[in-house]
Amino acid sequence: MGAGMIATIAAAELRLMLRSRLALVGLATLLLLSAIAAITSAVQMSTAAIARADAQAITDAQFKSQPDRHPHRMVHYGTYALRPVGSLAAFDPGVDAFTGTVLFLEGHRQNSATFGAARESSDLVRFGQLTPAFVLQTLAPLLLVFLGFATVARERESGSLRALRAHGASAATILGGKAIALAAVAGIAMLPALIALLWAAARMPGEAAVAALTALAYAAYLLVWVLAIVAGSALARTAQGALVGLIAAWAIIVVLVPRAAAGWAGLAEPLPSRVDTEFAIAADLRTLGDSHNANDPHFAAFKAGVLKQYGVSRVEDLPVNYRGIQAMEGERLTAKLFDEYGARADAIQLGQSARLAAFGLLSPALTVRRASMLAAATDLATHLDFMRQAEAYRFDLVQRLNRLQAEAVSGADDGARSRDPIADRRTRISADFWRSMPEFAFVQRSPARRAEAMLPPLGILILWLAAAAVLFGFGIRRVGSDAA
After folding, report:
1. What order of strands is seen across the sheet that includes strand 79-82?
2. What Rg do the C-alpha atoms of the chain give, in angstroms?
3. What is the pLDDT of residues 176-230, one digit of tens each?
4. CA distance 253 to 236
5. Residue 419: phi, psi to the nearest 5?
6. Among candidates 100, 165, 181, 56, which has minimal Cα distance to 380?
7. How many CA atoms are closer than 13 Å to the CA of 104, on its beta-carbon side?
8. Could you read off the pLDDT of 156-172 as tens digits, one per residue?
9. Which of 174, 261, 277, 351 could be disulfide-bonded to 359 (CB atoms 3.0-4.6 Å)?
């Protein structure tokens, strides 16, 4: 009897929604936006993936096709590293627009990633980019508010709650039926996004588990809204009061808290600008040592150590090219400094991200956003992994070239090449060496690791579900007392 009554109430509520032109237009609009978001995002990310892969192949080919050259020329010629598109980036592009995706790798410098829409921004929570994730995070709850604010309040105002009780429907049955009807609408609203996830999982079977977890996270998120909306309608005295209260809740949870949290995280742990960092690195480099200054104390001591190691008294008697050895030491010092500053910046950004994640206790929108970015490998940690791997590759490549200068170029020719054309030609080593250099390949976190990283936000969503269920219980008690 109870299950049948719940189904009857749910069916009646759905019929009422379908008879409302406003509800139909709203649902149709959301489905259209979601479908457009899924298609355009998939096309954009597919195009971006092809473009980045082609650009990486072209830049690798250009590096390897260089003619016979002095190795240090190749150090300054440099190459590019491009971050591949995330596994489920078509669903949630994450921080791509903020962080940049292309990095120029050269000797003596550590550059910033470029080609990001808001490269210098630390506001990692954006509002307005039309993607399947954005539609579900922002627009779907608003639609549910407009469709569900009057589900119970309307019955109270019309006096039909007593009639429902007279037909044997308990307060739990009434609210359960209303919630099922609204949950059915939420399920329909999720369909385009679910299809997009299924499409992505079909193209990349290894991503099926994280795609399923993403769908689960958004289902839990929308269920939180369903329970809260029905409970809000039950607790409000009038339908108008329910609408005002629920819209205010949506604005706070979806707009205000994420924006305020991002702003506060940036103020609590400010990230130094790139210009300030460059000045600080330059100042520290002057204290470490200048490899181009023959009288620099550090490199004077380094030179003495090299001479002692090989048992000679003059640079000219070394079995290797001292200029190459010196270049290797200079790059080691600068790379160490780059790593120190990079580690500080990473710690600050991860600290900001952690503060943002903590605000998930105040906004499930933040929590589900974090879960989907982790699943899609478009989160901040993935970007920082790319930057670290690119820097490690840069250092290895530059040191390989410096070692070639030390071992394959005569020290006498290297010293005379600026005034002796014949010596200059002898310092140009075979282009076969460039072709033997390894290519950059970003190693993305495995689906298993990303699924594991999703567990904390999923746990917070479970807490939100529990809180919504408690609120739903209060709504049941309120309806029970009204109909008594």
Report:
1. 79-82, 102-106, 109-110
2. 31
3. 999 999 999 999 999 998 888 888 888 888 889 999 999 999 999 999 999 999 9
4. 19
5. -120, -5
6. 100
7. 12
8. 887 777 777 767 778 89
9. 261
pLDDT over 90 (residue 284): no
**For residues 80-109, average pLDDT:** 87
CA dist., res. 474 & res. 153, Å (int): 14
Distance CA 249, CA 258 (A): 13
Task: Kindly list the domain boundaries of the chain, sorted by start residue.
Answer: 2-483
* Maximum pairwise Cα distance, the chain: 107
Residues 392-451 have pLDDT tens digits of 999 999 999 999 999 999 988 888 888 888 988 999 999 999 998 999 999 999 999 999
SS3 for 33-80 is HHHHHHHHHHHHHHHHHHHHHHHHHHHHHHHHCCCCECHHHHHHHCEE
pLDDT tens for 28-73 read 999 998 899 888 888 888 888 899 999 999 999 999 999 999 999 9
Q: What is the mean pLDDT of residues 264-277?
A: 85
Report the percentage of the chain scoring pLDDT > 90: 54
pLDDT-based confidence at residue 269 (cuts at 50, 70, 90):
confident
Q: What are phi and psi of 105, to 5 degrees?
A: -110, 125
For the purposes of burial, counting CB atoms within 10 Å of the CB of 314, is it exposed (0-12), middle (13-18) or buried (19 or more)? exposed
Q: Please answer whether residues 326 and 299 qualify as being in contact, where contact means their C-beta atoms are separated by less than 8 angstroms.
A: yes
